[in-house]
Amino acid sequence: DFLSLSGKIYFDFGDYKKSRTIVNESLNIRNQIGDTLSTKYALDIATKASCENGLGNKPECLSLLHQSLNIFHRLGNNSHEFAETLKEMGALYYSMGDNHLALEYLEQAVNMIHNVGLSDSHYLVVNIEISQAVVRGECGDIKYAIEELHRVHEKLNKCKCNNMVHVLTLQYMSAFYRDKEDYTNCIKYGLA
User: Fold this and answer.
1) Whole-structure pTM value
2) Residues 150, 155, 160, CA angle at the centre, nearest 5°?
3) Separation of alpha carbons 188 and 164, rounded Å
4) What does the pLDDT profile of the chain (192 residues) look like in tens digits?
5) Long-range contact list for 142-151, CB < 8 A, 24+ apart?
């Protein structure tokens, strides 16, 4: 667990190579002790996938995320970790330009996250909902995107959430209003 945590810390600081090295050590130990079908093993693989993505190796990231999701499926548990890994897969496909696969994974993540008992204003719930709204808007469902972003905006107004998440939500709303050529709301939410 110490190696996993250390790997995540290095990842958060942007040192993807050091993070990957440490996570590989954790995975090697888990392999040696036979701990290959656990949430912790799946999370280590997901962290390694994030490192690969940070290093620009999307094919390896994709392969590792599939491995991680396979473990979660085999465990059969719906958890926020599983939902977050689904979100990461959606984000990866989005970054690769495959909005339809991105949306498929994000919708799975949204469905799962609403069933695991996290508060509706939990950062992961909000993050997944924003991601799904943006991809649906990119797929042409701008009406849904705007409605969902308004819902998230209202939710954020009721809680003490990260201001950057709130600003990001408003920026997306403004952009989708611009796409609809509703410049009054574009300016309203772009300057809010």
Assistant:
1) 0.84
2) 135
3) 18
4) 888 888 888 888 999 999 999 999 999 999 999 999 999 999 999 999 999 999 999 999 999 999 999 999 999 878 889 999 999 999 999 999 999 999 999 999 988 888 887 666 677 888 889 999 999 998 999 999 999 999 888 888 877 666 777 787 888 888 888 888 888 888 888 855
5) 142/176, 142/179, 142/180, 145/172, 145/176, 146/173, 146/176, 146/177, 146/180, 149/173, 149/176
